User: Fold these one by one.
Assistant:
Number 1:
Amino acid sequence: MCREVDLKQAVLAKNDGAAHALRTRLTAAGVTVVNLLSSPGSGKTALLERELGLARERGVPAAALTADLATENDAVRLARSGLPVRQVLTDGLCHMEAEMLGRHLDGWLPPETRLLFVENVGNLVCPASYDLGESLRVVLASVTEGEDKPLKYPTAFGLAQLVVVTKTDLAGPAEFDEAAFRRHVQQVNPGVEVLLTSARRGTGLGLLLDRASAVGAGAPAHTPVMAGPATSHGHHHGQGHHHGHGHDHGLHNHNHNHNHNHDHDHGHHHGHGHEHDHEHAPDQDPGPGRSSLAAAGPR
């Protein structure tokens, strides 16, 4: 048992070294990496597709790398944005690793890229322990997954620098308790911001892009308690709950050459560039550009 633990720590230590080197290299090149983690079926591909399309409209030099155990379906979808997209097949590995990411970026990432979205393998366990050299770690959860998701996966949510709720158009039918979800998020990660989105309706569209762009421009990202006080990028690999009181933000001409070679490179370049908790929080005034689920439907 001790040898197994030692081996895991050695693997994570090696990955942390590779992540530090990759972060240094990409930061020097002016690239901000956004690591997207979620369960399968959370809707992160649909949201990312909309965000990439908006990035292209705004002239933001962005790209995306998406990882899956099999199929190129997500890359095909994301390539519709007209931005550079690459598929990574992990051959059964349940997460991305920093060395793997760096290897797939070499010779592919366009030099003008400023934002790189990495859609990690759909899994909230393994990917949570692996630093990819990202500047912003985002964890997504759909309203259909239940309010207790942060408590079930404390490491994933506890190390998030931003939490995004997806599929809010289904909040009513799913009887999603927004206040309970927020409390659970703050329980494991005090102070982290929660955004509400719906790719189908366009709710919150652009907020993820805005947050990523702000970090790229030098705005500090949230430092999770679980990550430790020494660094905003180092990831603590242990499990545990941290109880604290955070802040509630009151969120009430495309080139479609699909090159299916061994590298799975979708070279699309710029044309121009439920456990229901029925305690209810007091009503709050939504901030600008944000929406509340209070009117999403009957509980």
Number 2:
Amino acid sequence: MKKIGFLSFGHWTPSPHSATRSAQDVLLQSIDLAVAAEELGADGAYFRVHHFARQLSSPFPLLAAVGAKTRRIEIGTGVIDMRYENPLYMAEDAGAADLISGGRLQLGLSRGSPEQVIEGYRYFGFDPRAGESDADMGRRHTEALLDVLRGEGFAKPNPQPMFPNPPGLLRLEPFSEGLRERIWWGSGSNATAVWAAEQGMNLQSSTLKDDETGEPFHVQQAQQIRAYRAAWAAAGHQRAPRVSVSRSIFALMNDTDRAYFGRGGQDQDSVGFLDEKTRAIFGRSYAAEPDRLIKMLAEDEGIAEADTLLLTIPNQLGVDYCAHVIDSILTHVAPALGWR
């Protein structure tokens, strides 16, 4: 059994061929799609975060709105670039969104990926410390967030406050019990997956990771997940961790599906460079009739190792079509693979 949700990058463009021509379109349709996915029986609605781009950026207003409109579905991110974040302010936003949803927030974080502008985090007021890389800064921000999400007091109260204080040091409010255990780390390498396990975070692994062995993407991803679980066990955490993977999967059910995704071209892994030092492997997409799709997915070792699968959806094709994509997998593919 697997939890199955969707992951939206929230693209929008002022084009007559796009169903999302403005930021408002993306935000409102994201809420509608989460509601539709819940009605279809999906388990999660996740959203990517990018800055300086025509995509979803500030996640917490959207997460709170989705939480208010739904009752069961998990609500999350995949992922928030922690180089840009004030950890304390983020903890307040996350606590509020989690309380509105009734404790359904699944917050995916990462040190960040190549962005639209050079060192964009500097425009947000964040600079790495001396001897620190931007990735180090993102992990430092993450550790600060994890610390305050424990809910322990750390701030000295004013002896003459505007409002009465509880005794002792003060914590951030609103505090949402259990949110600390629903923090995920988007890892692009085996080493950062091990670090995430040591920190007690769940693991998100996408369709991109460092090419560390030259093997097929799904094999390397499975190895990454096993390394993460071994590190989790070694750290002695008292709960079971969760692991998600994302995939582009399309069941070709009709002529529209075949027109959009039936022409191939992305059915093999590809290799490229994220920067001058980092060789990365990009996982393939899957698009076929359900019977063929089932056979192909059964051989994906990365999916087999995960407890949660996030379907990347083409949000610019609109809510109805994306709901159809999700429903096709839930109805015609997942049961045959034992995912439902």
Number 3:
Amino acid sequence: MEKNSMANINIQAFPEDITEDGLKIYGETSYQNQIATLSHYLHNTIFEGTYAEIQAHRNELIGLIRDFLEHKNQLQDFSDEDIAHVADCPYEFDLFRDFYQVPFPSPRTYDHTFIDLFAGIGGIRIPFDEMGYHCVFSSEWDAKACQTYFANFGTVPFGDITKIPATKIPKHDVLLAGFPCQAFSIMGKMQGFADTRGTMFFEIERILKHHQTPYILLENVKQLVGHDGGRTFKVILERLNQLWYYVKWQVLNALDFGLPQKRERVIIVGFQHKKDCDDFSFDIPHTPYNLADILEPEKDVDPTLFASDHIVEKRCEKTIGKKVFYPSIWHENKAGNISVLDYSCALRTGASYNYLLVNGVRRPTSRELLRLQGFPEKYKIAVTHQDIRRQTGNSVAVPMIRMVAQKINDIIKKREYETSEIKRFKKVANA
């Protein structure tokens, strides 16, 4: 790298390692901590204000850039003048290209903010991005999920939420959390709060208690509602009530939101004002789905995704006497029974590689898996197919979240309008 060559400074120039597939790995320290800090700082800092404020931001950013380059043993390649130029206008220099040239850039101007806990690959975040909300903090402990998140949103989530004090999390309007569901899932051991993943709800409680976040949206598996005879869910609702939240919840199915996937999830929304909660409704119009809409042409499918002749033959044997049609997804359950359906059963992280076969002959592609969850076409695939299988199995049905997000946004706008009208009335009355 040439000394003082600003054109060569970019995040992709500093991977920890490169795999045989060309995948760039950043390593725990630089990727999960340094870039998380740097990316959140860039997206949350407004480089405007008084001279003193601008200088303070500039000096802080210079420090972050120097720390990053020093960690990568590249500090000696760039002059203080180079680094100062970047800090003066970070939007314009290539160092931060990977933070801004993404499919879902954070809005430069905004009225409302949110935090994205247990963020996964950002499925809950997308609808709020679409509405112009600004994410001020995200957290996710899976490194590969963080890599996908960074490629699409330009921020690297912070790691283990249990290690992050609530005081370090910025003030926000909405808390989003698809908290870990394996502890309550029927596909897992259903240990609930006995499983350390089940205790993650109490991290949400800890943050809500400190910030008194006005609005909350939580997502989990359907089995959470009935786990331990309903006692687990009762504890969650009681804890939210003790924090003075008015709560509504509903089990929703992705099939009702135009997605060819049977995926039932409980959605919990919370409000600090009873009227807001009363005004919120889960009533939704049913949107029909069409499996053909999400399938890629067979000629474009990676040949490695096609099942072996032996697997295909066994599937055909088990469907003798059943109605077979195309397009369809053939689902094998734990007992080995085969169902031929015009939709996918719920995507799962730990399922057999062949539990879902499109038309009985091949596995879904990475793009098809994302489409089954309703991710936009511009969503970037930045990891291996195996990683996408696991990430989509852990993710959410985006259109389902979008409906809830829009309803929450309607409530927020209504409250703001009514508040402004009351202030205007008082002003007129006191004139």
Number 4:
Amino acid sequence: MEQGRTRDPASSQSVPGVTAPEPHAAARIPEQSRGEHTHSEPPAPRLVQRHSVRGQILDALRTALVGGELVPGEVYSAPALGARFGVSATPVREAMQQLAIEGAVEVVPNRGFRVTERTPRELAELAEIRALIEVPVMLRLARTVPADRWRELRPLAEATSAAAARGDRAHYAESDRAFHRAVLSLAGNAQLVAVAEDLHRRSQWPLVAGPAIRRADLVADAAEHSALLEALIAQDLPVVQSLVREHFTSGK
């Protein structure tokens, strides 16, 4: 986390772990865009790059939630979390507001944000909704997508296996969503992918007083991804249907 820092355009705060851009690189404008162009050449576009401290803090908080560093039921203040990440309270509050929309935290007036206490019933309900959306789409794709397209997803399945083998819950959550997102994106429906992604993320927030997720659980879940992908490549529809339904029935 000490490899570099980048500055928020709106403040002097920085976030550890991200290399800063070269001075003035974010607002460099070619000479042509200043009116010094010929009639045969259109003005060059302005090159503007923005680095969001809020986005980096949001990613860090999501990782802390999935990894269990932020405990369900506990209240955390924006200034305290800001001090932890080396930034002001403002980007933390903005990131926490987004997490509140996602159902990961709830606002506690004059105190901060309480991590949502997810119950087994809520997780079961989320799994049911995901199955209603994703299972029919996956079965339709199994009948229409050629094997070569499925082979392109092998690195994503392997990434879930690698994270599971390390017992890395945070990276497993990311690679798990990436795999499902890539599969659903083959349907060509951006709204479907966005809704499924939101439900998937909500289902990954930790349970309160629930059993700890073991490495073996992650490995078994990752194995289902790989088995499903191989069945899709082989166009073995009965196996695909069995694996897809089992994947969601088990709440993965």
